[in-house]
Amino acid sequence: MNGPYRIRPLPAVSLPALALATAITAVPAAADEESGLPEITPRAETAAVHGDEEGRNSDADDPAIWLHPDDPERSLVITALKEGGLHVYGLDAESVQEIPAPAPPGEGDAPGRFNNVDLVQGLETASGPVDIAVSSDRGHDRLRIHRIDPDDPDAPLTDVTDPDAPWIFSDSQEEVNGEATAYGLTTWTDPETGRSYAVATQAARTTLALLELLPTPEGTVTYREVRTIELPGTFRMPDGTSWTPCGDPGELPQAEGLAVDPESGTLFAAQETVGIWRMRADLKGEPELVDRVREYGVPAEYDEQADECIPGGDPGYGGEHLTADVEGLAVLPDGEGGGRLLASSQGDDSFSAYDLEEVREDDEAYTGGFRVVAASEELDGSEECDGLEVFAEPLGERYPDGLMVVQDGEATPENDNEERGDATGFKFVDLADVRDALDD
């Protein structure tokens, strides 16, 4: 049930029933015409990735944007490609470095699989402060840490993960192979103590873990668990009934997208088939549900033969802005203590924006949304978006107003190679276009 968790009162009005797909994911064909959301176009895209000849699933998922300390033109976009490892791109969206995912530790074990990535600036180490990229290795249930060298333009990332870094959610290799492992990820540095942390979610579960990053005397980085918190998996509806989001048998409604508002120390978490939660970044206190997906409260049953969830009637308890799955989250600051929280609404290929000052409180925070659509036949938009990131400072002449990078789950026209799997990639969007769409 809801337990100690706080959920805003539901609206009394009923929403029309929505057509739902696997795992309660809706893709209404007419939504594009009816929504009236502004449309913006990308300026560049990375080369599409997919499976390789060895069967590894290079599936684009999550980006991070790193500012070069001396030359903004040499800033980097670091991306997680699941079994494809990490790929690093320049601001021109051209490849700079490819880092393969780690091999399986033993025969029959799972290979490395990088799911999400984020950055820590100025981590204090034995050799001085360094910038690092922190990734969730879903295949090995560990964090992976890479030092970023601003003086190496060809291979800026070096793996500095401590070889004895512990599993995060598992107690044995057998449990790691069961894949209830590290999934979503964000980083956070406490301004009072200077200590840096990663927050990781658990695949197919509702657990979030706070992990303190710890440099070692040997120059590597490890981590320790500080605390965990559980999001609910079952919810009490206004009519007194209980609702559990439908999913594959044995799986709970997981969270993936995470973002920290550094101004307030607030963590936002996207529970994919439920909505967006707000809580303290140190995972103390009680999470509060600040917006729901449209499918919230819709009863459904898993059909084994069809391998999908079959929905019933919509009781009208859902939200108005997000269509499951709600995926990536990013904080867009305005420099004055406010700004926006951006969320990718994967089910209808849109992005929703929330006023940061209001979403920290209990006010109605939604301020609008937009879509990233094709700029030309060669440069398509973003569909079925997983991760996104924004950087709100100038990045040289190419992006003087900042940059937004979004994952594209259907990189067309290259998405027709059935032997190598779906093609995915990342789109680079001028942040000025995002602000114009949101009337900032």
Automatic annotation (TrEMBL):
<dbReference type="Pfam" id="PF02333">
    <property type="entry name" value="Phytase"/>
</dbReference>
<feature type="signal peptide">
    <location>
        <begin position="1"/>
        <end position="31"/>
    </location>
</feature>
<dbReference type="InterPro" id="IPR011042">
    <property type="entry name" value="6-blade_b-propeller_TolB-like"/>
</dbReference>
<feature type="region of interest" description="Disordered">
    <location>
        <begin position="30"/>
        <end position="63"/>
    </location>
</feature>
<feature type="compositionally biased region" description="Basic and acidic residues">
    <location>
        <begin position="50"/>
        <end position="59"/>
    </location>
</feature>
<feature type="domain" description="BPP">
    <location>
        <begin position="30"/>
        <end position="438"/>
    </location>
</feature>
<dbReference type="InterPro" id="IPR003431">
    <property type="entry name" value="B-propeller_Phytase"/>
</dbReference>
<protein>
    <submittedName>
        <fullName>3-phytase</fullName>
        <ecNumber>3.1.3.8</ecNumber>
    </submittedName>
</protein>
<dbReference type="GO" id="GO:0016158">
    <property type="term" value="F:inositol hexakisphosphate 3-phosphatase activity"/>
</dbReference>
<keyword id="KW-0732">Signal</keyword>
<keyword id="KW-0378">Hydrolase</keyword>
